[in-house]
From TrEMBL, chain A:
PANTHER family: NUCLEAR INHIBITOR OF PROTEIN PHOSPHATASE-1
N-terminal signal peptide: none
Record PROSITE patterns: FHA_DOMAIN
Descriptive protein name: FHA domain-containing protein
From TrEMBL, chain B:
Keywords: Cell shape, Membrane, Transmembrane, Transmembrane helix
InterPro entries cross-referenced by the UniProt entry: FtsW/RodA
Species lineage: Bacteria, Bacillati, Actinomycetota, Actinomycetes, Kitasatosporales
Pfam families xrefs: FTSW_RODA_SPOVE (PF01098)
Protein's organism: Streptomyces lateritius
Transmembrane feature ranges: 23-40, 52-69, 81-99, 124-141, 150-171, 191-208, 228-245, 251-268, 275-296, 359-380, 401-428, 434-453
Topology class, membrane: Multi-pass membrane protein
Identification of the protein by name: FtsW/RodA/SpoVE family cell cycle protein
Domain of life where this protein originates: Bacteria
Compartments it resides in: Membrane
Main location: membrane
Length: 173, 480
C-alpha cells in the first residue's frame, strides 16, 4: 500500500471522526442555545387562524418584527400595563414587545379571577410601528375601550381604560 | 367560547421523538469502525482484511437491534446516547483487533501462557451480551422509579458484589488485585456491576433523606455537618465499600465510588461543604494509602518521574515493571504527535501487558494523535453531557439523582483512566468504558446506558394533558 494512500486514509479517518462529533453537537444544539421559546410563540399564532381570518384587518402580531423594522420604541410609547380596578388592582406588566393575553385560562399573561371574563378574553399586542393594539377574542361579555364595545382590533390611547368584566386596565408610560 | 378549543397551551410542545436522527447517527457510528478496520488492514497487510464484513455486519446487527428496541420501548429517549456508545464500542473492537495482529503481543502471550488467543472475537461476544443486557434493561425496567423500591436490597447486593472476590475458591488474585471472580471459565469483575447497584442505593436513600441532610445540620468551622442519624447509614456503607476495595487492592474503583458518593451528596443537598469535605477526605485517603500500600508506591514513583524511576528501580522488581510500562505509554503518546502515525502503524504494542485493556488509550494516542484523543474525550464528554442533561430534565428526584450519579461515575472513570494513562494522576488499573477489552466493563456500561436511556425517555416524554381546570366553567353573562 503506497505511503500516499495511507496518509490520505489517516487524515480522512480523523476528519470523519470529527465530522461525527460535529454532527452529534448539531443534534443537541437546541440544548446549548436555550429552549424553544420562539417556536412556542409561532405555534400559538398558527393555532388560531380563524380569528385572524375573521378580523382580516388586523396584522398578525409577531415578536421581533418590531425590533427588526423600527428599532427603538418611539417617544411617548407606553412602557407598562397597569390593572386599575378589579381583584388584580395594582398589578403591572412591563411592555416589551410581547403579546399579552388576558383571560381566566391558566396560560394567560394576566390570569383574571373574574366570573365575567372569558377563558381567552382579549389580547394586547404591538403592531408593526410599535403602536399597542387591543383585540377582543370573541369573549362572552365583550371588551370595552372607554365606553365603546370593541368590534375590531383597536389602537390603545395612553391612559384609556380597557374594561374586561370587573377588571379595568390601562397603558401608562 | 369556540376560541378555547383551538389554542394550544404554553408548555405542551410536542417533543419530537428524534428516533430517525438516532438511526442516521447510528448508521454513521457503524460505518466509522468499518472504515477504521479497513484502514488497519490496508496498513498492516496491504489488503482488505478478511473479517471486515463479519465485524461490520455484527456491529450493524447489534446496533440495529438496540435501535429497534429503543424505538419500540423508549420512543422519546435521548437520540445521542446509543450512537455514541456504539461508536466507542466499535472503535474498541477495531483497536483490540489491531493489537491482536501485533507480532510482539502474540510472542509475549506464547511465552507467558504457551498459546495466543485473539481478543477481538471475545470482545465481540461481550458486546453482544452487553447489547442483550441493554435490551433487557429496557424491556424489564418499564419505569426507572421501580428501582426506588429496591433501595436497601441494592445496598445489600452492592456489598455482596464487592465481597464476592474475597470468597475463597470463587475469587481469583490476578495482577495484584483481587477483583475478579471465576465462574465456569469466565472471569467476572463484580465491581463494575456494583457501581450501578450502589448508584441506585445512593439515589434512593438520598432522595428520602436529602432534606434532613441539607437542613438539619449544625454549623461547624464554616461547614454544615448533618446529624449522625441521617448521615450514619450512608457513611457506614461508604466506609465498608472502601475498606473492601482497599483490601482487594482496587484503588481506582474505590476512588470512583467515593467520587460518586460526594457528587450525589452535593447534588442532593446543594451544600458546597460536601465538596470541600470530599476533597479533604480523598487527599487524606490517598496520602494514607500511598504510604502503606507497596504497589501504590510503585505507581506513584512511576507517575512522578517514570524515566528516572526506570533507571533507579531494581531490575525485575514490581516498581521497574510499573515504570517501564509508564515510559512506554508516554512514548506512545509522544510519538503520536498531533495527527498520529495512522491506524495500524504505531508501536503501542511495546507496552505489552494490558495494552488492549488498561492502556488502550495509548494506542489511540499513538495512532490517531492528539486529534483522535480529543475526539474520543469529546465522545465520552457528550455521553456525560447527555446524562447530566437527562438528570436536569428528569421530573422525579430519584431519576435526577440516579442519572446524575451514573453519569458522574462514568465521568470519574474516564478521568481516572485517561488521567492515569496520560500521566496526570498515578495509574490505577481501571478500564476505559466501551473501548478497553473486558467483558464485565462492556456489559455493565451497556446496562448503564440502558438505564440512562430509560430515564431520558421518561424525562422527555410529553407531559400528560392537564386535568380540566376551573377555566372550563362557563363565563357568567352580564344581563343588561
Amino acid at each position: 500500500m503506497s505511503e500516499l494512500t495511507l496518509t490520505v486514509m489517516r487524515l480522512g479517518f480523523l476528519a470523519v471522526l470529527w465530522l461525527f462529533v460535529i454532527v452529534a453537537v448539531q443534534v443537541i444544539r437546541s440544548d446549548l442555545f436555550g429552549t424553544r421559546v420562539t417556536q412556542r410563540g409561532s405555534r400559538r399564532q398558527d393555532a388560531r387562524p380563524q380569528q385572524n381570518a375573521r378580523q382580516a384587518a388586523s396584522p398578525p402580531p409577531q415578536r421581533g418584527q418590531q425590533s427588526a423594522g423600527g428599532g427603538r420604541q418611539r417617544r411617548g410609547a407606553p412602557t407598562k400595563l397597569v390593572v386599575s380596578e378589579g381583584t388584580l388592582t395594582g398589578t403591572t406588566v412591563a411592555l416589551q414587545g410581547q403579546t399579552i393575553t388576558l383571560g381566566r385560562a391558566h396560560d394567560s399573561t394576566i390570569v383574571l379571577d373574574d366570573d365575567y371574563a372569558s377563558s381567552r378574553h382579549a389580547r394586547i399586542y404591538p403592531d408593526r410601528d410599535g403602536q399597542w393594539i387591543v383585540e377582543d377574542l370573541g369573549s362572552t361579555n365583550g371588551t370595552y375601550l372607554d365606553r365603546t364595545r370593541l368590534t375590531t382590533a383597536t389602537p390603545i390611547p395612553l391612559g384609556a381604560p380597557i374594561r374586561i368584566g370587573k377588571t379595568v386596565i390601562e397603558l401608562r408610560k | 367560547m369556540s376560541v378555547v378549543t383551538n389554542t394550544t397551551t404554553i408548555g405542551a410542545i410536542e417533543a419530537p421523538s428524534r428516533r430517525n436522527t438516532e438511526l442516521a447517527l447510528l448508521a454513521f457510528a457503524v460505518v466509522i469502525p468499518v472504515f477504521a478496520y479497513l484502514n488497519v488492514g490496508l496498513a498492516l497487510d496491504g489488503e482488505v482484511p478478511s473479517g471486515m464484513l463479519g465485524y461490520g455486519l455484527g456491529l450493524g446487527l447489534l446496533a440495529g437491534v438496540a435501535h429497534l428496541v429503543v424505538r419500540r420501548f423508549a420512543p422519546y429517549a435521548d437520540p445521542l446516547l446509543l450512537p455514541l456508545a456504539t461508536l466507542l464500542n466499535g472503535m474498541g473492537l477495531v483497536l483490540i483487533w489491531r493489537l491482536d495482529q501485533s507480532p510482539r503481543l502474540i510472542a509475549l502471550a506464547k511465552r507467558q501462557y504457551g498459546a495466543f488467543s485473539a481478543s477481538a472475537p471475545n470482545q465481540m461476544m461481550y458486546s453482544a451480551i452487553g447489547i442483550a443486557m441493554f435490551v433487557g434493561v429496557l424491556l424489564i425496567l418499564k419505569d426507572h422509579r421501580v428501582l426506588q423500591r429496591y433501595t436497601y436490597i441494592s445496598m445489600v447486593a452492592a456489598l455482596i458484589l464487592l465481597l464476592l472476590p474475597l470468597v475463597p475458591g470463587l475469587g481469583t488474585d490476578s495482577f495484584g488485585a483481587k477483583i475478579w471472580i471465576r465462574v465456569g471459565g469466565f472471569s467476572i469483575q463484580p465491581g463494575e456491576f456494583a457501581k450501578l447497584v450502589l448508584a441506585v442505593f445512593f439515589s434512593g436513600y438520598l432522595m428520602v433523606k436529602r432534606d434532613a441532610l441539607a437542613l438539619a445540620s449544625r454549623r461547624f468551622m464554616g461547614l454544615y455537618l448533618p446529624r449522625g442519624r441521617d448521615l450514619g447509614p450512608i457513611l457506614t456503607i461508604w466506609a465498608v465499600s472502601l475498606l473492601i476495595l482497599v483490601f482487594e487492592n482496587d484503588l481506582g474503583t474505590s476512588l470512583l465510588f467515593f467520587g460518586m458518593f460526594v457528587i450525589m451528596l452535593y447534588v442532593a443537598t446543594e451544600r458546597t461543604s460536601w465538596i470541600v469535605m470530599g476533597l479533604l477526605m480523598a487527599t487524606g485517603g490517598a496520602v494514607f494509602v500511598s504510604t502503606f500500600a507497596s504497589h501504590v508506591q510503585s505507581r506513584v514513583a512511576a507517575w512522578l518521574d517514570p524515566f528516572e524511576c526506570l533507571k533507579t528501580a531494581p531490575e525485575g522488581s514490581n516498581m521497574a515493571y510499573a515504570c517501564d510500562q509508564m515510559t512506554q505509554v508516554l512514548m506512545s503518546f509522544g510519538s503520536g504527535g498531533i495527527l498520529g502515525t495512522g491506524l495500524g502503524q504505531g508501536n503501542s504494542d511495546l507496552i505489552q501487558f494490558a495494552a488492549n485493556s488498561d492502556f488502550i488509550f495509548a494506542t489511540v494516542g499513538e495512532e490517531l494523535g492528539l486529534t483522535g484523543v480529543m475526539v474520543f474525550l469529546l465522545l465520552y464528554g457528550l455521553i456525560i453531557e447527555r446524562g447530566v442533561r437527562t438528570a436536569l430534565a428528569a421530573r422525579d428526584p430519584f431519576g435526577k439523582l440516579l442519572a446524575m450519579g451514573l453519569s458522574g461515575a462514568f465521568a470519574l472513570q474516564i478521568f481516572v483512566v485517561a488521567g492515569g494513562v496520560m500521566g496526570l494522576i498515578p495509574l490505577t488499573g481501571m478500564t476505559m468504558p466501551f473501548l478497553a477489552y473486558g467483558g464485565s466493563s462492556v456489559i455493565a456500561n451497556w446496562a448503564l446506558i440502558g438505564i440512562l436511556i430509560r430515564i431520558s425517555d421518561t424525562a422527555r416524554r410529553p407531559a400528560p394533558a392537564p386535568a380540566p381546570s376551573p377555566d372550563a366553567e362557563m363565563t357568567q353573562v352580564v344581563r343588561p
